[in-house]
Amino acid sequence: MTDTYARTTSTWRNWAGNVTARPARVESPASVDELAEVLRRASEDGLTVKPVGTGHSFTATAATDGVLIRPDLLTGIRGIDRRAMTVTVEAGTPLKRLNAALAREGLSLTNMGDIMEQTVAGATSTGTHGTGRDSASISAQIRALELVTADGTVLSCSAEEHPDVFAAARIGLGALGVVTAVTFAVEPVFLLTAREEPMTFDRVTADFDQLVTENEHFEFYWFPHTGNCNTKRNNRSAGPAAPPGRVSGWIEDELLSNGIFQVACSVGRAVPGVIPSLARISSRALSARTYTDIPYKVFTSPRRVRFVEMEYALPREAAVDALRELKAMVERSPLRISFPVEVRTAPADDIALSTASGRESAYIAVHLYRGTPHQAYFTAVERIMTGYDGRPHWGKIHTRDAAYLAGSYPRFGEFTAVRDRLDPDRLFANDYLRRVLGD
Fold first, then answer.
1. Cα–Cα distance between 139 and 345 in angstroms, integer?
2. For the purposes of burial, counting CB atoms within 10 Å of the CB of 71, is it exposed (0-12), middle (13-18) or buried (19 or more)?
3. Within the chain, what is the greatest distance between any pair of CA atoms?
4. Of 62, 89, 59, 70, which Cα lies nearest the Cα of 5?
5. At what angle do helices 275-282 and 261-270 cross, to 10 degrees?
6. CB 72 within 8 A of CB 28
7. Which residues pair with 232 in a beta bridge?
8. Which residues are 342's β-sheet partners?
9. Is 48:428 a contact under the CB 8 Å cutoff?
10. Quick check: pTM over 0.90?
């Protein structure tokens, strides 16, 4: 590889602006061979290496003062296997491009998160997930992946080939190597009917198990300082498609959920005392609606208001107790919280560092508007979540370390053993990985 592919940079920032880094150099390899050469040169120069996606993680998982690898040129679909019902995609491909390309081919992922700005590798490496009774995270839909390891080896792994690496690398935190391609299971494109409906906090929590059991995908948002929630139920539909109207959809998804909400958050940051009143107004602003469309147009929504986030996965049976404790904490504290609390679920999976590894899980996510001091709120929330053996989302703010995580993940040692074998000299290390995985 020549210096043609090397770029210098000043400061890298993540999407939320809470993480910055000053890498020694930035590289954009255009092939797997060029990437292997980047790793060789970095090792010779005594520099660590971190791949970065679109920066949607709130942790420093991709931060480095060594070599930052941008996957801009490692994009596109390598191939679709209609007999196996898989798609193999380059790791730097944004999920929004993958979703649109699959839809044109009459295909879809089974489940996905609520945004699609991330790259394929960034989303899977940090355990991005949506909500589902039976269908799990994006990483759980991986059938094979290609990984360039510290010594430049191009490793193909699956349940049949290097299964120990596959069990770890589907959510690899960038600690095992650089993912260059991912093979996902896909299925014929289908329709989902979304039913969005306001509901009281007391009713949602009382009926939580029933709502999860009766719907393929259930989630809700609780608005702090109120007893109000907004629920969303997504279920497969025979059709016909009935997407939101152009005007009504714009009002709900852009004007209310982004434009006016941005103004409300800005006002609340400047004058925290008005937040409870704004919360009562916001919690009643979105009306009930039902619409039917292809999956990525139902699962995902535009998120233009920037924020910071903490999310914990709990055993599903603990979700309601934890949420009630969270609500009580907010009500007795001086905290003023402008962002709703998001609750989702996932079935158990078999990925070593998945937040749903080996247990059916519920996710409780808290957010604050970017620039708002978050430490007091997040610390109080984290104290509650860890009391229920919570597992922090790898890409969202938390303070857990390897000692805690080793006790929370039964297969933690399995992951670190694979790391020791693939990256003994810690070419892919950074401060975040040292904290959560140890040295």
1. 15
2. buried
3. 62
4. 70
5. 170
6. yes
7. 196, 219
8. 221, 365
9. yes
10. yes
DSSP 134: S
Amino acid identity, position 215: N
Q: Quick one: which of 309, 341, 317 has its CA closest to 328?
A: 341
Supply 35's token pair.
Answer: 């990437």
Count of beta carbons in the 10 Å neighbourhood of residue 239: 11
**Tokens standing for 386?**
């860890």
Using DSSP, state whether 7 is helix, strand or coil: strand
Interatomic CA distance for residues 127 and 278, integer angstroms:
33
pLDDT at 1: 33
The answer to whether the beta carbons of residues 215 and 133 sit under 8 Å apart is yes
pLDDT the model gives residue 5: 39
Taken as a whole, the chain contains a residue count of 439
Residue among 39, 33, 36, 35 nearest 425 (CA): 39
- Tell me the H-state helices in 105-189: 120-125, 163-169
- Alpha-helical segments (H) within 170-260: 201-206, 208-214, 246-250
DSSP per residue over 291-351, as a string? EEE-HHHHH-----S-EEEEEEEEEGGGHHHHHHHHHHHHHHSS----SPEEEEEE--B--
Would you list the DSSP string of 35-104? HHHHHHHHHHTT--EEE--SS--SSSTT--SSEEEP-TTS-SEEEEETTTTEEEEETT-BHHHHHHHHHH
Q: Decide: residue 343, CB within 10 A, 0-12 exposed, 13-18 middle, 19+ buried.
A: buried
DSSP letter for 119, please.
Answer: B
pLDDT of the chain, 439 residues: tens digit per residue = 333 334 555 799 999 999 999 999 999 999 999 999 999 999 999 999 999 999 999 999 999 999 999 999 999 999 999 999 999 999 999 999 999 999 999 999 999 999 999 999 999 999 999 999 999 999 999 999 999 999 999 999 999 999 999 999 999 999 999 999 999 999 999 999 999 999 999 999 999 999 999 999 999 999 999 999 999 999 999 999 999 887 667 666 665 677 778 888 888 888 988 988 888 888 777 789 999 999 999 999 888 899 999 999 999 999 999 999 999 999 999 999 999 999 999 999 999 999 999 999 999 999 999 999 999 999 999 999 999 999 999 999 999 999 999 999 999 999 999 999 999 999 999 999 999 999 8
Give φ, ψ of 408 to 5 degrees: -90, -25
